[in-house]
Amino acid sequence: MTAVQDEKSTGYVRQGKQAYLDTLRTLSEASVEVHFDPFKDIDWDSPELEVRPNDERWILNDADEIGAHPWYKALPEERRIEIGMYRWAQVAKVGLQFEQLLIGGVMNHLVWSKNNNPEFRYATHEVTEETHHTQMFQEFVNRVNPDVAGAPTRFKVLVPFMAAAGAFFPEAFFTGILAGEEPIDHLQKGAMRAGGSHPAANRIMQIHIAEEARHIGFAHQYLEQHVPELGRFKKALLALIFPLIMRQLCDVIMVPSKQARDDMGIPDEVAREIWWDSAESQKLLRDLFGDVRLLADNLGIRRGPAKLLWKLCGIDGRASRFRAEPRAASY
Asked: Which InterPro entries would you find in this protein's record (predicted)?
């Protein structure tokens, strides 16, 4: 009996799902062939990755919302370096806390998984990679700025409850995965395209971007396969909470907490301009969600009352024509 025939016998393969199975197999094989260990593939103690407090490479470039603001540009070099180091460590800390949510939710989801479920293997590959990411990010934080604030308290309090959705409403949970992964992927790719930062930050971004592409792809594929299977009530509920999840978790990733803003000395009026009062920042917010608008449209959940919520959350707009469409072509 072939693997596919065995999967058919368990009810996991139905008409039209063969491509999904092929994708799962490809993702799993890629995770075996290309993966990273933060303590084997990063030479933390090399001279190249040495962290020095007076290193101008920590200065934020225009790809970063803080770095692009006139307030930051007018600061003395020493302060710009200090804020840059805090910013990168803060992004890493929030990223690893989000990865912890992902790991917990996927494990809650998989505890109900039946034998021969082809999703099990790839999902556990992903959890392994995310565990390595938490180690990598924490080591980076420890070396760059161990005093960063991390995610807001409300997020940390809610993590166990959000992770529980992996068991009882996995479609909402995987929506949450995209809500966190898409913005941080956008932030890191933008930084690298603009020339990067300190070599230590560049190295962890290279690793994270490479593996996160698989994780984002799986979340898209999972929702495309399973949302159409939902009953009418649950699908209607998902349509309503989809934009709310996107906006709330995007803010956790993109907007430094009040404590972090105070630590960096960002005035409140500057913070409001950067997140999300100015026309430029509002466009950035919309740009983050072109791919998920495409997904929502394909799933038929961005219409009616749900469409109004997208607008109220400030994340409505034209959907991408294809995944990873360049931002400049989106509007």
From this structure: AurF/CmlI, Ferritin-like_SF, RNR-like
